Amino acid sequence: MTVAVSPASVQIADSTIAPALDIRHLTVRYREIEAISDVSATIAVGEHIAIIGPNGAGKSTLLKAIAGLQPIATGEIRWFGNTQAEPNTIAYVPQRLQVDWRFPVSVSDVVLMGRVGRIGLFRRPSAHDRLLVQRALERVGLAAFANRQIGQLSGGQQQRVFLARALAQEARLLLMDEPLVGLDIPSQDEIFRALASLRSERVTVLTALHDLQQASRYFDRVMLLNRRLIAFAPAREAFTAMNLVATYGGHLHLTSSGDSILTIADSCCDSSQMTHHD
Ligand SMILES: Nc1ncnc2c1ncn2[C@@H]1O[C@H](COP(=O)(O)OP(=O)(O)OP(=O)(O)O)[C@@H](O)[C@H]1O
Predict the structure, then answer these.
(1) 94 vs 63, which has greater pLDDT?
(2) Domain 18-89+171-267 sits in which CATH superfamily?
(3) CB–CB of 43/20 below 8 Å?
(4) Which residues form the ABC transporter domain (predicted)?
């Protein structure tokens, strides 16, 4: 006997899969400063999300809270349906300036650190671990740099080392805090290529960004954040003049030509000129 599976029953099965992240009424404070206020968002497994907002909007704070590095004041985060984050499943790539690049370790050592959670601190890495390190370096175009000290790399290469570490970790959730700051276009492209290759493995990606054009080109949805969540939608829907003014406030000058071209000069942000062109 054959059993027909209707599209409706397939949908029911799909809807039982827990989202990668379920953030409910999240508020994070540093003493009296409320860095994030009542943020709620549900992110599906495999989605790639750009977090957009001016300096001080709470982008890093949100990423750190999701990484389990920042205590939550009120609200809740569920990771793959669990109320506890499982560290092995999350890779967090901090802002470049937060890393001590003089630390005397090689590129492959840094990438191998991504395996520590899986192999344990005091066990030797296996051939499989080393293979994963090599593959991760190949994926970000750095195989030839495996034995270099990390301080001897360019900014773009250093950022890619941390992406390779996340790949070697085999994380299901990748959090990157402004990975493109200070990188030239080829290095940025290399990072986007590596991120794109994670789609086939359904790795969920959240990246803090300043460039609206890149957000709309490379990400499924964008979060517009300024302490509270202004919008969370595909870029085409989220990047309305009203939402952008709510996000960037008085620092924003909008010019538009037709419906789809926005030019934003934002004196508060690292990038002095941000553009969004369809
Ligand atoms: N460790 C801290 N102690 C006290 N206040 C902090 C701390 N970290 C961040 N803040 C404050 O929290 C708010 C949000 O900061 P956060 O770094 O999350 O913003 P951001 O959007 O990532 O900014 P940027 O684009 O400049 O990195 C800011 O007002 C900031 O000054």
Answers:
(1) 63
(2) P-loop containing nucleotide triphosphate hydrolases (3.40.50.300)
(3) yes
(4) 21-252
